[in-house]
Design goal:
The protein has 230 residues and is of the alpha+beta class. Helix content is 24%, strand content 22%.
């Protein structure tokens, strides 16, 4: 390594209360038109489900965040908004009887796009899903490229064109590369998200290591929960 090269170290760790000020500032940079989380909500997320709250570190600096909760998917499979499924960001809807890890938020320092920070956070989520023996990860991803063409096509056609490779969307295209499957459109998911016209793409990743004969990591002892599609 010569003097012009810089050693970079990227890793993911659990979020701590000491991270909150930095995360609020970073979230405001990433989503200038969307109200950031409230401090007490972030504190409560860590209290409710500490394993699901993650930050990405690059050279000792927080550069990204991923927040998750566990749900009974049957309760939310129909239309829902981000505020409904996350209890307005408090994660009071977290349910240890569930089999689904729900991705509530991912954001990355916009100056570091293309540096695999998002990939590191998604991989950490996949490892968490496997470690807890959960059946899948479900999320509703923004469609920030849609607003520019919303007067030309429906959001459903836009998503299809992303799937076909005709259009590249900053979020959905990345999620497809990360092994997620597109399941449809969740309308009015974040109404204030003007770039996406309020809509989101419903996506899923199936845990290949899921063992229905064992309890999840949040259900100690015998797994007596009757599971269908939860």
């Amino acid at each position: 390594m010569n003097n012009n090269q810089v050693m970079t170290k990227l890793f993911v760790r659990s979020t701590t209360p000491a991270d909150i000020n930095i995360l609020l500032r970073l979230q405001a940079d990433v989503y200038p038109s969307i109200d950031p989380w409230q401090r007490d909500h972030l504190v409560h997320q860590i209290e409710v489900f500490p394993e699901g709250q993650l930050v990405a570190m690059l050279n000792g600096r927080i550069v990204g965040c991923a927040s998750s909760l566990v749900i009974l998917w049957d309760e939310w499979a129909e239309e829902h908004s981000w505020k409904e499924i996350t209890a307005a960001g408090t994660f009071d809807t977290h349910n240890t009887a569930g089999f689904t890890l729900y991705g509530a938020e991912v954001f990355v320092d916009p100056r570091l796009r293309g540096k695999r920070v998002g990939h590191a956070l998604y991989e950490a989520r996949r490892q968490l899903c496997k470690r807890l023996n959960l059946r899948r990860i479900i999320a509703c991803g923004r469609l920030p490229g849609y607003g520019a063409v919303a007067d030309q096509m429906s959001v459903e056609l836009y998503a299809k064109k992303v799937l076909w490779g005709d259009i590249t969307d900053p979020v959905l295209s990345f999620q497809l590369r990360e092994g997620f499957r597109y399941c449809g459109i969740m309308k009015n998911y974040i109404p204030e998200d003007q770039e996406s016209r309020g809509h989101a793409a419903l996506i899923v990743w199936i845990n290949p290591d899921y063992d229905a004969s064992r309890p999840t990591g949040l259900q100690p002892g015998e797994n007596t929960t009757k599971e269908n599609s939860q």
